[in-house]
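Limitations

Structures in this collection are predictions, not experimental determinations, and the ligand pose is part of the prediction. Treat each record accordingly. The example that follows, with 7TS as the small molecule, is included so readers can see exactly what is and is not provided: the inputs are given verbatim, and the output is the predicted complex.
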Amino acid sequence: MYLNIEKIRKDFPILAQNVYGKPLVYLDNAATTQKPLSVIRKIEEVYSTINANIHRGVHHLSQLATESHEEARKTVQRYIHASSANEIVFTHGATESINLVAGSFCRSQCKPGDEIIITTMEHHANIIPWQIQRDITGVELKIVPIIEKGEIHVEDIEEHISSRTRLISIAHVSNVLGTVNPVADVIRLGHNYNVPVLIDAAQSVQHFPIDVQTLDCDFLVFSSHKMYGPTGVGVLYGKEIWLDKLPPYQGGGEMIAHVTFEKTTFNGLPFKFEAGTPDYVGSTALGEAIRYIENIGLENIRRYEEHLLCYATEKLSQIEGMQIIGTSEHKSSVLSFLVKGIHPYDMGMLLDRLGIAVRTGHHCAQPLMDALGIEGTLRASFAFYNTEEEIDALAAGIEKVAKMF
Ligand code: 7TS
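Predicted complex:
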């Protein structure tokens, strides 16, 4: 196909192992991706050569570690084409990034009765932080329903906008349905009503190019571990005008300009939002993961993964009793399904014995499951290191398990 997968797989040592005596088929990439050697080695390199707390020391190692963290910030800026590195805040993950915006935004920009719009297909990470703020600040949540095929209609979002709408927060790609939402249209719509838009890019930023300036989103969040980087690091992109306006999310070291017991003034962007010692090892390794992705090329990744998704959809559709959940024409790398008469958990357990790692359950999207009238699904999710042969193994595994019922 478009990429030298055999060569790429050699960069991911974890893939070359057997599970229960069978070659591992790792199809749980929407939960987390595996890490290339360059990322693993970068973590070792930082701890072995430049480790020191950043931004605080005049000494040599502290300066090198600080440069490494700030260089990673510029790498992320370039990756999503932000206009300034000040707009890149390092967090612990997409979840923390949304909690940050929800907390700081609702506290400073909303009055009781003001409204936040989300959709039925959100991950719990884009539901609960707003519910917490609902209970603290009195904002209300407006939920846009999904339509057939598992899509969101921009017109339905418009129907939910009122004079009290303060923000729209929506997934770029659904982690269950794989639907790629028309976020450019949603952002345009929001801005027509003077409403800012947050894009949850946890399932998109690793699959195709994103340009935050072209999109014109106000906030965008994602996690390092879903894009071949380490766990424990995430990103909040925010337009400078918004980040300037929002109050700090947590207090502590790093985020201050001057402290007395009477009054504290805060540091500038992006440090205002990075209280405490940041994960400078993780950010540096994320920078390495981005370089790895850029070397393969996001356009190549998009094309190849699109091919894998089509191949898998066709292959699985031929299986008797197969029901694919989420049939939008605009999908990315996620394939949820059910097989008639077989509980997803049983199927998942038995596939595991064949060395095939898929996810089962509600995928942290219980309201979506309720809307679909199901308890959960099986989910295969693809990365650029997956192969047609692995999808063949999945299809054969499903058929083998189905015969046992
Ligand atoms: N938003 C979406 C769309 C997600 O899919 C996830 C994680 C998150 C936010 C939260 O990311 P975190 O890194 O902060 O946890 N999704 C999944 C999943 O689908 N299976 O495991 C985690």
